[in-house]
UniProtKB/TrEMBL annotation:
Protein's name in the database: DHA2 family efflux MFS transporter permease subunit
Ranges that cross the membrane: 20-38, 50-71, 91-117, 147-167, 179-199, 211-230, 242-261, 282-304, 316-334, 346-364, 370-397, 485-503
InterPro entries given in the database record: EmrB-like (IPR004638), MFS (IPR011701), MFS_dom (IPR020846)
Assigned protein family: Belongs to the major facilitator superfamily. EmrB family.
PROSITE patterns in alphabetical order: MFS
One Pfam match: MFS_1
Swiss-Prot/TrEMBL keywords: Cell membrane, Membrane, Transmembrane, Transmembrane helix, Transport
Record domain Major facilitator superfamily (MFS) profile: where: 25-508
Protein's membrane topology: Multi-pass membrane protein
Main location (coarse class): membrane
Localization in the cell: Cell membrane
Amino acid sequence: MDAATVSTAVADENAPLAGGMLWLAAIILAAANFIAVLNMTIANVAVPNIAGSLGATVSQGTWVITSYAVGEAITVPLTGWLSARYGAVRVFVGAMVLFGFFSLVSGLANSLGLLVAARIFQGFSGGPLMPLSQTLLMRIFPKEKTAAAIGLWSMTTLIAPVLGPILGGYFCDEYSWSWIFYINLPIAFTGGFFAWQLLKRYSEPLVRNPIDRVGLALLIVWVATLQLMLDEGKDLDWFASTKIVTLAIIAAIAFAAFIIWELYEEHPVVDLKVFRHRGFSACVLTISLAFAAFFGVSVLTPLWLQNFMGYTATQAGLATAGTGLAAFFIAPLVAQMATRVDARKLVFGGVIWLGLDTLWRTVANTDMTFWNIAVPLVFLGFGLPFFFIPTTGLALASVEEREMDSAAGLMNFLRTLSGAFATSCVTTVWANQITRNHAELVGLTDSDQGVATMLTASGAPGEAVTQVIDYMITGQSVMLATNQLMWAIGIAFFIAASVIWIAPRPSRVVDPSAGGH
C-alpha cells in the first residue's frame, strides 16, 4: 500500500478508521511495540560478537544491554506526562522515527562509547512506544473490538522477548551484529510515516502544565542507579562491593524523595494517584510477579542450554521458540473469551497453568533431547495469553479514561522493572546454587573410587581422571540448580495467581474512544 492510497483513505480527518485502514494502523502500532520489546533481549546473545568487534571486553560489552534498559526505564513512566504535554500521536510518531535513527547509529557505531550512547537514546525513544501503542490501539478500535486490540498488543509483548535471542543469534551467526539494529529501520521509518497519516485525526488538545523538574530529576536518578545496580550486582558480588552499596543507597534515597514529591506536587511528572484504584494496583502487582517469573524462565533456559548443554545461540532460540508460537495462536481465542468470562478467572487459571508447567520442568536431566526440552516450553506458551491479555484489560478498565496513558506507562514500567529484577535474581541464585551443589556432590561422588579405578584401568592418566569426574559433577550441579530454580519459579507463579483476587470485578469495560482523555 503506497502513500497515495493512505492519503486518500485518510482524507476525512474526522472519520474514524475502518476496515483495512483500521487493521493497517493496528499492525503499525503492534509492530512498534514489538521492536521496542525485541530490543530488550536481541542484543543479549550478541555481546561477545560486539565486544570482539569493537575491541572491548565482554564485561564492557554488557553495557550495550544496560544502556538500553536504563534509557527505556526512564521514559516509560513519563508517557502520561509526555502525552498530555505534546499529544499521544505526536509523541508516538516522534519516538518511532527517533528509534529508527538511533538504531541506524547503533548499527554503524565503530566504538563501544558511541554504541552505548546510541543505545541510551534508542531506549529513550523505545520507552513511550510500549504504553502508547497499547492505549492508541484501544482508542482507534470500536468498543466491541477492544479485546482484539488488547490481544494483538499482548501477542507482540509476549513473543518479542522470546524471538530476541533467536534473531540475535541468527544475525550474529550468518551476517554481523549490526543487523540486530538494522532490522528496526524499515519498521520504524515506514511505520512512523504511515502512523502519522493514519492517526493524526486522533490528536487531542494539549495540556501545558509546568514541567516538574524536581520530579523528573529524581526519577532519572533513582531509575538509573537502580538499573545499574541490578545489571552489575551479579558481577560485583552484590553488597560485598562498595559500588553496589553506593548505588543502592542513592537509589533508595532518590526513590523515597520521588514518591513524596510526586504525591504532593500539583503537576507531577508521574501520576502516582492511579494506584488509588484497587483493581489497577492488584493487576499491576499480578503482572509484575507473573512477568518476573516468566522472565526468570526465559533467562534461565537459554543460559542452561548454551553454557552447559552444548547448544548454539540459534539452537537455543529454536528450542524456546515454541513458547512464542503457541502464545501467538492461542491469543485470539483468549481475546474473545475476555469479553465473556470474568477476567480474574482467566488470569488465575492462566498463571496456575504457567506454574504447573514450570514444575513439570523440575525433572529435567542432562540426557534430555531437543524435543524433551521444547515440548514443555510449547505448553508454557498456551498459558501466557490467559495471563497477560485479561490482566491488561482489567487494569485499564479499573482507571478513569483520562488516566489511561499514565496507567499504561506505569504498568509497562513496573513490568519492565520486574523483568530486570528477575534477571539479576535468577542469574545470581543459579550461580550460587551451582557452587553449593558442586561442593556437596564432591563429597558424595565416587566415594568408593569405582569410577576413578575404571578410568585409570582404561589407560586415562591421573589428571584426566580428575577432570572427567569434575566435569560430571559440574554437569549434575548445573542440572540440580536449574531444577531447584524451576521449583522456586513455579511457586512464584502460584503466588502471583492468588494476587489477582484482590481486584474487584470491573464495573465497566474499557472505552476505546476515550483511551487517553
